[in-house]
Amino acid sequence: MTFTLTPIEGNNTKNIQWSIDQCFKNGGGKIVLEKGVYTVGGIRLRSNCHLYLKNGAVLKGTRDPEDYKILKNDALEPVGEEFFTDAVWVSAKRRLNHDHILKAASNWNNAIIRIFQAENVSVIGEEGSVIDGSDCYDPIGEEHYRGPHGISFHYCRNLKFGGYTIRNTGNWAHLGFTSQNMHFENIICEGGHDGIHVSVCDDIEVRDCEFYTGDDCIAGFDNYNVHVDNCVINSACSGFRFGGADILIENCKLFAPAKYFFRGSLSLEDKIEGNPAPKTGRKNMLCLYTYYSDFSLKVRRDSENIVIRNCEVENADRFLHYDFTGNQIWQKNRPLKSISFEGIKAKGVAMPLNAYGDSTTPLTLSIKDSEIEFSDGAECAIKGGFFKLIEAKNLKIKNLKGAFVKVYGEEGKIETENLEGVEVLTERATEEFKVKAI
Predict the structure, then answer these.
(1) Type and span of the H or E element at 123
(2) Does this model's pTM top 0.90?
(3) Alpha helix segments (H runs only) across 247-346
(4) pLDDT of 124-161, one tens digit each?
(5) 20 to 30 A Cα–Cα from 341, which one of 112, 135, 183, 374?
């Protein structure tokens, strides 16, 4: 079954949702959006339903956060009470629980496109198609300004996303929890928040995508069997803020300054108005790879076997940020066991790599066949503690003023082979390990 739609004046939510529902009732189908602007609130895609945006089709979210509560009044597939909550976002230091995240029908989980307890679903766009959230402002949203996400999915499997540009979403462009087998390809993400943020998910593939974000480009934790290939990464936070196991990131180009400001640095007026071109804010990339594992969700297994290879990095403040001292609120749950970098060419790196592990789970860090050029003479290449092994083979370092490893806490093995640009291998720190949180 196929429905081909053209835009109507005013709100198109009911028209599109009716077409989705008819496809679902008949075992599945395709909803095609012809060229034009479709103003919508929240719509729900269902199992075996496929949304297709033609060239010039724009799915444009309203700026009223009340328009996105699609799960609340869904009579076709009613959502159980256990998924609802009145809890709203509060800061991690003050919150008593994480219900606003954990319960899928919360205000925080709202999105332009919702996929819930569904399988075999896709959102595909031709070149020139757009999903535009118009930076919807929500005073009770995250950080008291973030509105609905672009696309969110919970408890799903077999999802495919590709071809469209997604921009100006009130919060993350793509949010996913507790799902399996998802494929992202040839997507352009533009705007102030995370491009793809998935947690407790398995079998994830991200290919040939471009991310120009004011927040993290690809984020989430407790994810397993992940492959990111041939992506452009331009961030005002971290290129990757990620945790999990069996993760391969390869053939990516990461660079700064960011095209978009970090929206948290904007004025309240700019946030309220959804100003598309604010004049001031922060655009520096904080880190290539920041480890992520907090207590908002239950972590199933250790983070290990993370490989980042054949990537180019330009003007990232940090190359690696891992600090398990307890000072980093997003890195307090499971420690990181192992991560390796291979074939990396990095220049304009402002600060040392941070590699401070856990006494019971010391870190193994490997850097091979790579070049790291610090921008202004780093005090050391790596600030490390509680590591099992730091391995460096065929590594060239430029503009290093101090030791290769400045050691904090317990020290493991340091093995090097063909290490260039280093005069002193190790130096014992006399101060405590302290890194400004990001």
Answers:
(1) strand 119-125
(2) yes
(3) 268-273
(4) 999 999 999 999 999 999 999 999 999 999 999 999 99
(5) 183
Task: Name the 3-class secondary structure at 319.
Answer: strand
Write a three-state SS string for the chain.
CEEEECCCCCECHHHHHHHHHHHHHCCCEEEEECCEEEEECCEEECCCEEEEECCCEEEEECCCHHHHCCCCCCCCCCCCHHHCCCCCCCCCCCCCCCHHHHCCCCHHHCEEEEEECCEEEEEEECCCCEEECCCCECCCCHHHCECCEEEEEECCEEEEEECCEEECCCCCCEEEECCEEEEEECCEEEECCCCEEEECCEEEEEECCEEEECCCCEEEEEEEEEEEECCEEEECCEEEEEEEEEEEEECCEEECCCCCCCHHHCCHHHHHHCCCCCCCCCCCEEEEEEECCCCCCCCCCCEEEEEEECCEEECEEEEEEEECCCCCHHHCCCCECEEEEECCEEEEECCCEEEECCCCCCEEEEEEEEEEEEEEEECCCEEEECEEEEEEEEEEEEEECCCCEEECCCCCEEEEEEEECCCCCEEECCCCCCCCCC
pLDDT value, residue 73 = 85
Q: Is the dihedral of CA 89, 95, 99, 101 positive or negative?
A: positive
